[in-house]
Amino acid sequence: MPTPFNVEKETQAVFNTVKNAGVDTSQFSMEVKLFADVSGSFQDEYRAGLVDPFFNAAKAIANAIDPDKKVQVVGFSDKAADTGDYEITNENIVQDFLNRSRNAGILWSGTDYAKGLAILREDAKAVSVAKSVASGFGSALKGLFGSKPSPAAQTGATSGKKPWLVMFVSDGEDFGSESKFNEILKEFASHGIFTVLIGANSDENVTFSRLVKAAKDIDGVTFHRISDITGIQTTDLYAKIFNAEFVNWYSAYKAANPA
What we know:
By secondary structure, the chain is of the alpha/beta class.
C-alpha cells in the first residue's frame, strides 16, 4: 500500500526548508529528475514501502519548484530506462514506476551508476549553453567551493532551459565504470545541473565509496547516506538536499545566469 502523501503539506515543507536555507523562493525554479536504483538488492525495500519516501520527496519538490509540476524518473540496475514523467497527484507512483521498469526489462539485476545517468546525458546538454562571464567571478567562487572546480559558475544558460535538480538514489556499490560515471556528473555540472547522490542502506559494510568520492571531487554534487532507511522522513530529505552546499551552488548559478 502506498505511503500516505499530503501534497499541500509536503510542498509547504519544501518551501519552508528552502526559505530557511536562504534561497529566494519567488524566483526558484528547477526541473526535478529522479534516478532510482532497481537492482536486485533493493527489491525487498521496494516491497516493504521503504523506498516510497524518496519518490514522495521528489513529488513534493517538483510541486514546489518544477515548472511542469511533474517528476521524470529513470530506473537503473545494470540496465536503465527513462520511465517517463509522473504527475504530482499520482498516489501509486512507485508501483507505476516498477511496472514501467518491468516492461522495460531493467528490474532486479546488478548496479551500474553510469548506465543510469547516461539515459539523460543528451538531454542534459540542452540545459544550458556556455557563455563567458566576468573573469574574476570564477576565481571568487573557487574559494567559496574549496578546491572543486566551479563549472556552474563558469557557464550560463542562454537556451531558456531551467537548471535541473537530480536525485540519484542507490542502495549499493557500483559495478560499472567509475570514470564514465564521474565524466557524466561533470558534464551535468557544466550544464547547470545539481546532483544529490543518496546512498540508502543500513549495512555499514556498504560504503558507497564512489558516491562519496564523486561528491568530494565534483562541484554541483553532494552525497548523503541514509543508514536508517526504515525511519527516513521526507522532511529529513528536504533538509539534506537543500543544504549549504546547494545554496552556494544555486547562488553561483543565478549570479552567472541572471533572469
